């Protein structure tokens, strides 16, 4: 055994912790302050490995200076970073030169000949290595400058590997020896070795990478060789969470995980740890702490040999997307030994990793899931392996299904707790999620199953909820301040709202997508002003948003599914259509969207439909706002809510709820004709898409029903008594014909208004709502009534409550129009984003 370095700690900084000079300074300060000997492992700066991969992917493709551009940007970023942490002087000059060389050479690749198009894995590794190498140099210089002597040590002198470029495996005992030999002298002199993570040496001495995320593995290797007291992996998350926080918003930090659980999670796709990272410390008493870089004092997650949290048989979920399923079937497999073994052997020979295997107990079939990218190759290698059985018809063949994801449910306590699998699958059944294949590891540490990729996020949320993982005790991910907004519908209200959201201050709302009947446009980083004007122009020409340059054809349901697959931040879907969108909204809620509705239909249809929607939203912990469905931007639902919250009881609500009808009646009172007034109402954006929805009272009826339901009205649309102002002969006309013939109705409208005036009264279209009944229609109101003085599009709503019994509480203001409606929706959005 090595002589342990007493109290030695290994600190690994992930890319996010080294994003820029400020982050790097933080990391340096953190190491500077650690008592006792320390070793540092660094990743490349955030995004650098991806950028290098992109550059390498452009080699030989003549992609217009792409490589030079990337090289230039990388050089600039690194320069900014080191200038922030290394003071001027000789060291800084040497670093500048080094960076110039590293990325200058990269730029040269843009002139590489076409035959180099497929870079060899070894060449690719030598390109990727630059990110970590430069980061280590900057870090060592910065730490020394900060007062704690440090030295950069090449990983090639430490980490011996098998030389499999791209995903090299470390050779443990050789690495142990190298690390002790090279690092101990530095440590004795109290110098901090700084090592580039992710890299090792192939047997021939060339650099080989350890697979994506490999610096976690480097840290564990060094810790093992030096018998460190602990390893700290500093990341941009508060610890290992119960699920990927980008998929399950209420994921929580797991205070402690057994090393076997953590390894299982990593192996089954939790991106937070490299799959092989824990192998070096598996049999050692070296705890690994995953901690939030931004808040180093928080405990994060401890990975160790302890077993805690016994109340949680399941501790976490992970998912691997982009999977395909191969099924080998045939009667001849029955009772024949070794089929499974041969299946694995064949795939192993071709270097294909299998994430799940399950065999039906009838032994009639074996299923296994493999990465989509190697699916064809895997199928071919199985067909070859079983060529004889296929020829003899003992095996029917090998089927391939794509577009799948493997989800794993992990926890040590599963072994002793009956019914875990049942709970997993009944949670999935509740969400109507079809399970394509199931496997339980013999360790009973994990249950894995395969579902359609489209349903993977929802499946994880359902299981997370069913095991109450949000109560596991650790903190949550700091909620992003920003909410991503998707618009369903892009008519005039939608377009006005889009302008408001884009122009809004504080950066809390970001408009990312617009969906209409034909498809969608999605820009994860937000739609630009240019995107919006292109979209508006297309809609103006009667086109779908799908027909714009960034548009995608799809059904609205598929559009929502596509958005849900992205890591949106606190997504909100705004329904500004006038259609029956209930099922679509349910789906959005199930996919994690909060909802804002200006569309009345989903909440004013049959009672069971409306209830289904509100229940679906509540059961997913999502939130719903629909202020703009009644009285546009007026705070009507808000007033109701505040009354109830303050302990008052609302007995009835009376109101003039139609901006259009209010406008028409007051224009005609002033002497204008019905036809001219209606045309103005249309032109001003007051009316529904078909103005007969306003004239018939249908629109007011819907609003009244929404209000009635707040008061406990149990009926549906047919229980609302609505007086229609559309003459029977106009009801069935196509919209265009109706609009042509408007003046035919001028006479009867004039007559109506005049008759009321003769009696000293005014005509108003009034909704009267209580728990017991709803009536909507024309009323002649006397001058004493609050409704008498209403003008134009103003709405007025009077709340009669236990407190405001004889003198109702009145809310009044403009109740129609693009700006006020969009304003009302915007308020709902701002409220959801602010909470
Ligand atoms: P590093 O900066 O060390 O390279 P990574 O970026 O590799 O860290 O890993 C952290 C990321 O892993 C997080 O940003 C998070 O999005 C993702 N992640 C996926 N699953 C989990 C999980 N269960 N717990 C924490 N983070 C997770
Ligand atoms: N920079 C490498 C990657 O992005 C290794 C790592 O970050 O651990 O995969
Ligand atoms: Mg990583």
Task: Please provide a written account of the structure.
39% of the residues lie in helices and 20% in strands. The chain is built from 28 helices and 29 strands. The strands form five sheets. An eight-stranded mixed β-sheet has the order 3-4-2-1-7-9-10-8, with helices on both faces. The relative contact order is 0.06. Magnesium ion is lined by residues 14, 213.
Keyphrases for this structure?
835 residues, alpha/beta, 8-stranded mixed beta sheet, 7-stranded mixed beta sheet, 28 helices, binds adenosine-5'-diphosphate, binds aspartic acid, binds magnesium ion
Largest sheet: 8 strands, mixed
pLDDT < 50 runs, ≥5 residues: none
Oligomer: single chain
User: For the CA atoms, what is the radius of gyration?
Assistant: 33 Å
Q: Report the principal-axis shape.
A: elongated
Estimated structural class: alpha/beta
Strand arrangement across the biggest beta sheet: 3-4-2-1-7-9-10-8
Tell me the layout of helices and strands.
Layout: E1 9-13, H1 21-32, E2 38-42, H2 48-57, H3 66-85, H4 90-108, H5 121-145, E3 150-153, H6 172-188, E4 192-196, E5 199-201, E6 207-209, H7 215-225, E7 230-235, E8 256-258, H8 259-267, E9 288-292, E10 301-304, E11 316-329, H9 339-349, E12 356-359, E13 365-371, H10 375-385, H11 387-391, E14 397-410, H12 420-430, E15 435-440, E16 446-452, H13 453-466, E17 483-488, H14 492-503, E18 509-516, E19 519-522, H15 529-540, E20 551-553, H16 556-564, E21 572-575, H17 582-590, E22 594-597, H18 601-604, H19 607-619, E23 624-625, H20 636-645, E24 650-656, H21 659-669, H22 674-683, H23 692-695, H24 698-711, E25 720-722, H25 728-731, H26 735-740, H27 746-758, E26 762-770, E27 774-781, E28 794-801, E29 809-814, H28 818-834
Parallel strand pairs: 1-2, 1-7, 2-4, 3-4, 7-9, 8-10, 17-18, 17-21, 21-22, 22-23, 25-27
Antiparallel strand pairs: 5-6, 9-10, 11-13, 11-14, 12-13, 14-16, 15-16, 18-19, 19-20, 24-26, 24-28, 26-27, 28-29
Helix pairs in contact: 1-3, 2-3, 2-5, 3-4, 3-5, 4-5, 6-7, 9-10, 12-13, 14-28, 17-19, 21-22
